[in-house]
Amino acid sequence: MKARNATFRSEPLPLVKGIPVQLEHVFYHLLANALKFSKQAEAPVISVSVRELSKSQLSHPLLSVTESDFVEIQIQDNGIGIERSQLEKIFDIFSQVPFNSVREGEGFGLAYCRKIIRNHSGIISAQSELGKGTTLSIILPLAKS
């Protein structure tokens, strides 16, 4: 991050249900991707925001297996972005979205992240605008206090 003069902002993160080492892998990978797919001529800006959601606010079938409330964690960057038609493909195993010159990795990182998040009774999704950046949203059950 220092080498790219990146800015990182994060709200305090709540406790979620999960296996810490697996969730660390997810967040490490998502932050690394935000840096990897940043614009060369612009310093990367990565923001992590959080909002709590009650179960009644959600209607996704994968979220119906738990009785707890949830948290949505969004990781937003100002990178190169992804074409709308490619957004769901980024979570497919061995899938790499065609970028100009950035072709690193094997194409299973985001598929691995999705598998971990689903194993934690959560969901992950992406929104993006080509040339403006990407927002990855993760919804996970909150830990009971």
In brief, what are we looking at here?
GO terms for molecular function: ATP binding; phosphorelay response regulator activity; protein histidine kinase activity; protein kinase activator activity. The protein has 145 residues and is of the alpha+beta class.
What's the number of helices? 2
Q: What characteristic shape results from the CA principal axes?
A: globular
CATH superfamily: Histidine kinase-like ATPase, C-terminal domain
User: Mean pLDDT, rounded to whole units?
Assistant: 86
Instruction: Tell me the major beta sheet.
Output: 5 strands, mixed
* Strand and helix order: EHEEHEE
Estimated structural class? alpha+beta
When the domains are counted, the total is: 1
CATH topology: Heat Shock Protein 90
Q: Low-confidence stretches at least 5 residues in length (pLDDT < 50)?
A: none
Question: What CATH architecture would you give?
Answer: 2-Layer Sandwich
* CA gyration radius, whole angstroms: 15 Å
